[in-house]
Design a protein that fits this description.
single chain; about 80 residues; mainly alpha; about 75% helix; about 0% strand
Length: about 80
């Protein structure tokens, strides 16, 4: 699955919403995203700065790698 927006772009969109210059619906239409996507991003990235979002992405990647490693160990011992 290809992501259309980077974490940096998502944070910029969320900051734009915080200014209150336009409604959430109008902002979503401007960036061609659904309301559901906006609120999912806000739950995940709300309050984060760009370096924090990069660190979150790194941690999620590492967590996934470790989960696969552990799953591989358990499947071979059964």
């Amino acid at each position: 699955m290809k992501k259309r927006f980077t974490e940096e772009q998502i944070i910029v969109i969320l900051r734009e919403a915080e200014t209150g210059a336009m409604t959430i619906k109008a902002l979503c239409k401007k960036h061609n995203i659904t309301d559901q996507t906006f609120f999912r991003w806000r739950n995940k990235f709300g309050g984060l700065d760009v370096p924090d979002a990069r660190r979150l992405k790194e941690l999620e990647s590492e967590n996934g790698r470790l989960k696969r490693l552990v799953a591989g160990c358990w499947s071979s011992t059964g």
